[in-house]
Structure formats: structure tokens, C-alpha cells
Amino acid sequence: MEPISLARGVPGPECLPLAELADCARAAILSDGETVLSYGPGGGYPLLREWISECHGVEPEQVVLTNGSLQGFQFVAEVLASTGPVLVEAPTYDRPLKILASLGAEVIPVPLDEEVTVGSGAFLYTIPTFQNPTGRTLPLDRRKRLAKLAKEGLLVLEDDPYGLVRFEGKALPTVFELAGGENVVYSSSFSKTIAPGLRVGYMVLPAALAAEVESVAASAYITPALLSQATVYAFLRRGKFAPNLERVCALLRDRRDAMIGALERHLPEAKWIVPEGGYFLWLELPGDLPAAELRPEGVTFVPGTDFFAAAGGESSLRLAFSYEPPAAIEEGVRRFASAVRAAMLLSRAA
Amino acid sequence: MEPISLARGVPGPECLPLAELADCARAAILSDGETVLSYGPGGGYPLLREWISECHGVEPEQVVLTNGSLQGFQFVAEVLASTGPVLVEAPTYDRPLKILASLGAEVIPVPLDEEVTVGSGAFLYTIPTFQNPTGRTLPLDRRKRLAKLAKEGLLVLEDDPYGLVRFEGKALPTVFELAGGENVVYSSSFSKTIAPGLRVGYMVLPAALAAEVESVAASAYITPALLSQATVYAFLRRGKFAPNLERVCALLRDRRDAMIGALERHLPEAKWIVPEGGYFLWLELPGDLPAAELRPEGVTFVPGTDFFAAAGGESSLRLAFSYEPPAAIEEGVRRFASAVRAAMLLSRAA
């Protein structure tokens, strides 16, 4: 039985604009090789920093490019984690939780559907749009509340790798926009919109913090990988970003639809909210079944508990629709559903 | 006055194989794009790991590719620095000293021309060939002594980015080779042999430590920048490495010769040892002049004190011959020498 991954938050190979990136990589070196192939600023390839700074209406020095946006999170956490507790959503992306744990940071989980009541700390980490792991989008009033907290002094780190990967509906303003950039770090990446192997992430930071983070970055690796950054820049300059994003969104929309359809057919007893974009769907199992004990044959998923700093998520799990094509998603959900059925029978018999 | 940099440990633009790398980057994506553009192992691009593992006679899992070799140092230091003091050469490369300081590690400096007498600690950090900053090469008996220490239980981190950049003379065996790989981490990079902006460094580690370091790397950035690594692999596979290295060594040899000639002409009172390769030359000033107080016009250098964890190097400095072409090196040394002359007159008058 061919294994099917509903675990990997990874784009399928069909999503990658291979031929175009090959040309962009070549062009990046031919047009600006002396810069691309030498050491450069710790904050990354100057032309891409400028491009991004214009998109966000900030100075180029406020943009720090990193080898993937997770590394940006690590640098910010290194700089700030000792100054107070870090507020995180519960559930949230598991890798930042691991980084915070390895730094010995104090972590305060805030349930996703609750207002943040703590007004101080090192920073608040949020993924407001198509969140990893839940796929949910924070409504406007909650975004405004976060922007207000930022203005009142709590630094907000807004991680937004999925925001542009929208299948339908209208984008809400970012917390960064609502706060006028004040005391908000906006983090994003080209992993979902171009290709993750390039490892091009970025952060837009308040000027003083940007300088500090750039210096931590330079201490860690002198200069990030410029070839990837210059390749992304060539891709943007050639006007390939928008049409590629449209293509990727169409591919992912079909996959999401396949997953929703399969869940409706095979597992209507479970609960989920249909995400309007991103990679993930959060599933609540019927009958409080413990997700970590499910052992479906030929399909993988990530148990909900992985995304909580403390207790929580025992009966939930994350399904990714990004990697497999629609037919495999349908089959994967079918396999998963039979494992759930079997577990339900067992639990009723016990 | 056009400023001349004898400070930067950076190859001049003439050293970079621009056109060839442009083709290699394109070919890397076209031939293996689905791997290169997606997430992959924390230890880096599999085909390059295999290639390097064959060069060093180890298993591919023992090779960890990082975004530049400094990052490898950081990961090893993170894993080991809490287990005991770190022994470093005095002087040594300044960036690792900064990383150790930021980790709060205890550092024991061992003067370059002295035997290591401490037999235990977290690890010993050495750059045995064309050392940064001194350009000196550790003689065979001292290498054997380090290999013996490794076998007796002191982990040796042998950093060797310059070893292949040899202008004349015969290469000595590495500490890694002398110890049969036992308890030695061998670290190198393609920054000096291909191009630094690619940020492709690597480490060859004992198996258990390799697994630990790969896991730390994955926690930090999931996957290193694969496009650069695949580009390096294409460059190697096409047989471009050896001829490019020969070309680079010839360029650098001319620059070293220009520096030595200029020193002989303009500053014969100073002391230096002619390095047989690498990027750097270590200069001891006459009359115990403090290097940090020199302010030569239109030329930069790095004062010796930057390379000592504790006191030392006050009257020494590092000159890099890697970046500027021979005529600029001649002029830079001339400018530098006049500042030294002026300082000597002043100090005699005082």
C-alpha cells in the first residue's frame, strides 16, 4: 500500500515553478554575480530587501532576510526571550514551541478562541491567517485587539506565511497594518508562494530591533544564502509571482475541496471548519477519541497534542492537504476514517 | 583617495567563477528540481553529502552541510559548550570567539606556538592550515599531538577552509586523517574554493554527534539552502573544481607575492612569516607599536587584539591579501607603512 501523507506541510512537486526558477537562478548570477556570490550584509540580498520594504512601506534596513522564516523567529526569540514570558496561541506551530523550549523561555499559551488578557511579556506570537495547525483566520475585531496591545507595549510577532495562499473570500488587514507597523514584527516567507527549498524568509521589524536581529544573524552565519534570495528577486522582477500564486492557489483549492468532500463522505461525525486558504485543516474527532492512539494504515497525520505547549488537543489532529493530489487525499481520508470507525467501535465495546 | 581593504577576508570578484556557476545553478534545478526546491533533510542536499562523504571515507550521515561553516561551529558549540571549557588557539578566528562568548562558554586560550597541555574539555578548536588570522600552518609533530589528544578523549574541531588554497609546498596530513577520524570533527567550506555567497559549509563528524548536530540544524531552519548546495554539487560533477582552484590559487599567489614584496620594500622593520597559502599574513610591528592606535589613510586592516579571547596581539595585526589586486596591495602596504613610520617617530619623540 502506497503511503499517503496528510502530515507534511509541504507543497506537492506540481506546485513548484521549476523551469522558471532554473532560469531565474542563472539570470541572478549573470546579472549580479559579484554581489550574489560574495559575502554581503547579515540582513540579506539588498535588492530583495528593497523590494520587500516597498511592499510594506518601511525602510530597507527594517527588512531582515533569513534562511527560511523559522530562523527569523529563532533570532527574535534569542534577542527577546530572556526579557519575559512569550505568549503563544494554543494550539500553534510546533517548531517555534521547540525553539522556545530550547532557549528555556517561559511560555504562556492563550487558547485560540479567547481574548488575550495578558498585556505584557517578551512578545506575543500569532499566526492570524490560515493558521498552522488549525487553518483558522483571526477575525477583524481580534486583530484590532492585537494591534491595540502592540501599541500599548506588547510586541506582537505576526507570522504570515500563508496569507497570500487564499482560495476565496477577502483578505483581512494584517495586525502589522492595523498597528501602522508600531511594535509589530511581520514575518513571512516565499516557501508557500514560490518554493520552500530556496529557504527565503523575511521579517519586517521596528528599526532598533531590526539592527539587533541583523547583528545576531551576522554572528550566526555572516550572510544568509544570497543565491536563493537573488533568485526570488529575479522571479519577482519578471512578474512571475502573481501568475504562479494563482496557479498554486488553484491547485491547493482542489486539494482542500477533495479533503472536505472526503470528510463529508467518510467521516461526517468529526468536526472541522473549512479553511479559506493555506495548507491545513484541524479535525476534532467524535467521542473524545485520543488522536495519538489512532494507527491508520497507509496514511499519516499529526496529532493535535504536538501543537500545544501544555495540555490540549488530545482528541484533535492536523490534516495537511498541500502535498498529495486530490485522488490521494480522498483515499487517505478514507483510510483514516476507517481507523477512526474501528477505534470508535472498540471504545464503545470497552 | 580610493580606500584599499587589507581587512576583508573575502575573495576578490576576479576569483568567482561566475558564468560557470550560473549554468550550474540552472542545471541543478532542471536536473533535480523537486528535491532542490522542497524541504529536505536538516543535514543538507543528499547528493553533495554523498560526494563529500566519499572524499573523506565516511558515511553520508556523518556529513552535515550548513549555510556556511561558521554555522556548523555554532551548532557544535551549542551542543557541547555546556560540557566543559573550550580550548582555542591564541590568536584565532574572531567569529567563533564571539559565538562562544554569546553562549557563555568558558574559553581557554592556548598560545599558537605552545603545546596543548590541557587534556580535557568540551572540545579544542584549531585551524591547522593557513590559519586565520596568522596564515601559519601547524607542523606535523603538533598535528600528531592533537590527533593523540583526540584519541585520548579530547574532541578536536579541525576547521580547514583554507587547506586547498595552497600556493606551494606539500600538504601535511589533517588531524582528522592522523586520528583516523576518531573523535575529530573536520570542518570545511566551499567559500574559498568556489564562492562565499553560496554559503555552503560542511562538517564531518563522529556518527552520534552528527545525528545530534543535524537535529539542532533542523530545529533552527528545517533544511539548509539546497539550491546553493546543489549548485556546488553540479560544479563538482562537471569537473570544474580542480581547474577553478588552480586559477584561484594562481591569483592569490600573485597577491601574496605583491604583499610580501611591498612589505620588504616599505616596512622591512616589521616581522612576518610567508604563508604558503590562504588569505592572511600576520604582521608584528617594530618597537611594540600598538596596532589599534594606527590610523593609516586610505587602507584598512584588523588589529591583532581582535583575535585573542584574553590579552594579546597588541602590537600585531592581520593583513588580508585575498581581496585587492596586486597593484592595490602594493599601494595599501605603502600607505600602511607610512602610518607606521609616523607612529615610530612620534613614539621616539615622546
Notes on the protein architecture:
- By secondary structure, chain A is α/β, with parallel strands linked by helices.
- Helix content of chain A is 41%, strand content 14%.
- Chain A has ten helices and twelve strands.
- In chain A, strands 2-8-7-6-5-3-4 form a seven-stranded mixed beta sheet, with helices on both faces. A three-stranded antiparallel beta sheet of chain A has the order 9-12-11, with no helix packed on it. Chain A has a two-stranded parallel ribbon with strand order 1-10.
- The first copy, chain A, starts with a strand and ends with a helix.
- Chains A and B meet through helix 1, helix 3, helix 4, helix 7 and helix 8 of A and helix 1, helix 3, helix 4, helix 7 and helix 8 of B.
Q: Which stretches of chain A are poorly predicted, pLDDT < 50 over at least 5 residues?
A: none
How do the helices and strands follow one another from N- to C-terminus of chain A?
A: EHHEHEHEEHEHEEHHHEEEEH
Largest interface: A-B, 49 and 49 residues
Total number of beta strands of chain A: 12
Q: What is the molecular shape of chain A?
A: globular
- Helical/strand content category of chain A: alpha/beta
DSSP strand content of chain A: 5-15%
Helix proportion range of chain A: 40-55%
